[in-house]
Write a structure and sequence with these properties.
Layout (H helix, E strand, L loop, with lengths): L1 H33 L3 H30 L7 H25 L5 H5 L6 H40 L3 H25 L3
Helix pairs in contact: 1-2, 1-3, 2-3, 5-6
Amino acid sequence: MADKRKLLGDIDRCHKKVAEGVESFKETWKKLQQACNPNQKEKYEQDLKKEIKKLQRLRDQIKTWCASNEVKDKRPLLEDRKLIETQMETFKIVERDSKTKAYSKEALGLPAKIDPAEREKYELREWLNKTIESLNIESDKLEADVEVIHAQNRKGKSKDKQQDKLDELQEFIAKHRCTLSILKPC
């Protein structure tokens, strides 16, 4: 009876260690993903390696308990084991990426990894270019409308309505040019 209580206590402690280890692994994984400096990445990779070693030891202990007949409810042990194995798969990815040489065939075939800040700058630059292009197109259309109105004024159409429309179009053109002058230096 005392042995069974001791075993259940050990299993409970192991379950808590697995939860803490997985949480620590995930935090280190996030830090690794956000690291920009190669030295930081290397440090986080080493930390991940330590965490995965701890989890593997716990997994071996869980395997032993699952194989024995002393434990009746093996479901929580199997769940912990699967959780650890999931983290091991994640670590395989990190290990493969860290061992890939920079100019090997595998590395050259991979899509380029872009820093999140650089990606954001690129997306912002693309948006600005599209906005500038659409403003230029809109300005061209407005200037074409102004030319049409000038042509109609020469023919003697009603000048009051035409003049209001002309003033409105020229105001839009001036706003577009002002906006473009602000955006283009970027």
